[in-house]
Specification:
8 helices; eight-stranded parallel barrel; ten-stranded antiparallel β-sheet; about 400 residues; 2 domains; alpha/beta; TIM Barrel; about 20% helix
Length: about 400
């Protein structure tokens, strides 16, 4: 997931508060702030904070704190303003800022470097700093593409997130597409509240992944006796075609539709997926979890008929004893299974994107599934022989 930062080091407190509030409402992850504002920011809501190590902002103004006081400030991330290197400086050398970063990181603090790239030496030094920093915040001016391409390539194997400053939606979209991978996040430098929300929303949407879904032909429909099934109620409203990937085997998961459809007998519940038996797998990003493990606050992955995903949050999990039904389907030479509640509101998704109730499914019908080659061990993919029947 791409991160959104908001720079709130400039202006009076009312201006800062408005920017931070707008960013938080759009799902921002971090705010870069003056150390003196951290206590006020905490009153606005839950968001990670970062401040410059010397307590000052980029213009040199800000809280009159010493380096030691700023180091102990209640910020999640400490930021160092890395100077522009001259032609006589060694881009591989250790500056006082880099030394301080290493010292603070050794104590367990999260550290970031703010680098204003105006020449090649500073870009090369940014790559050196990025090997220490947890976050590398880049201001690249008009030369946005080449320096970021070089840094993404140079730091690909290092555990650092590259964040670039952006002043518009266009700049954000460009930064997110560099080398196909894009930067890990953006630092919004706008004072326009609508633009802040627009940029933040675009960044969050860019973090969506996709799954390859294929049609599977139903070969078995069999009623079962009573079993314990799980309903997942989320903090998100789903739309027609959306649901979650669930199944009896990690090698193949069915797209189970949300209860978004209207019914003559039951009100629409677009926040719910009637997900199946307690033992079933649920795919969440690159891992699987048992339905019985889920609890309020857990992350889930919502997926639509085209395979596009988005994050969801569990609000409540309901486990109740209900009559069950077994479905078996064939796809790519594999027989996949899922056990679901026998009820009209429990639906799967057909290849055309429309939902079909489990009570109406017949042998020969096709539904969408996700095929995976590897098995799973504690939810993680493993390459070994695993047989699931």
């Amino acid at each position: 997931m791409k991160n959104v930062w908001i720079n709130a080091t400039e202006g009076n407190w009312d201006q800062k508060r408005n920017k931070i509030t707008s960013a938080m409402e759009a799902g921002a992850d971090f705010v870069l702030a003056d150390a003196a504002d951290l206590s006020e920011i905490k009153k606005l809501g839950k968001i990670k904070t970062a401040c410059f190590f010397d307590g000052k902002n980029k213009s040199g103004s800000g809280a009159k704190t010493t380096a030691a006081a700023a180091a102990n400030a209640d910020a999640d991330v400490l930021v160092w303003d890395i100077p522009i290197l001259s032609e006589n400086d060694d881009e591989k050398g250790e500056t006082p800022e880099l030394k301080q970063m290493k010292e603070q990181k050794a104590t367990g603090r999260s550290v970031a470097a703010y680098v204003d790239i105006q020449n090649k030496k500073t870009e090369l030094f940014a790559a050196v700093v990025g090997k220490t920093a947890d976050y590398l915040i880049i201001s690249a001016g008009d030369w946005r593409i080449i320096p970021l391409e070089n840094l993404i390539a140079a730091l690909e194997k290092f555990d650092v997130e590259i964040i670039t400053d952006v002043k518009s939606l266009e700049e954000a979209q460009t930064s997110l597409q560099i080398l196909e991978k894009g930067v890990d996040g953006v630092m919004i430098e706008s004072d326009d509240m609508s633009e802040i929300k627009e940029i933040a929303n675009a960044v969050k949407m860019s973090g969506r992944t996709s799954e390859d879904l294929v049609p599977a032909k139903i070969v078995t429909v069999r009623q079962l006796s009573m079993g314990d099934r799980v309903c997942i109620d989320t903090c998100n409203l789903m739309t027609p075609g959306e649901g979650m990937l669930i199944g009896s085997q990690s090698a193949g998961l069915f797209l189970i539709h949300s209860e978004v459809d209207e019914s003559p007998y039951v009100a629409s519940r677009p926040f719910r997926v009637n997900a199946g038996a307690v033992y079933s797998y649920l795919k969440i990003n690159d891992i699987t979890r048992y339905l019985s493990e889920l609890k309020a606050g857990d992350d889930v992955t919502i997926i639509d008929a085209k395979g596009q995903t988005r994050p969801g949050i569990v609000g409540r999990v309901k486990i109740e004893s209900r009559p069950m039904m077994l479905l078996e389907a064939e796809a790519e030479g594999k027989v996949l299974k899922v056990i679901l509640q026998n009820a009209e509101t429990v639906k799967l998704v057909k290849p055309d994107g429309k939902s079909v109730s489990i009570t109406q499914i017949q042998v020969g019908d096709e539904v969408l599934v996700k095929i995976e080659e590897a098995g799973r061990h504690f939810g993680m993919k493993v390459t070994e022989k695993i047989i699931e029947n």
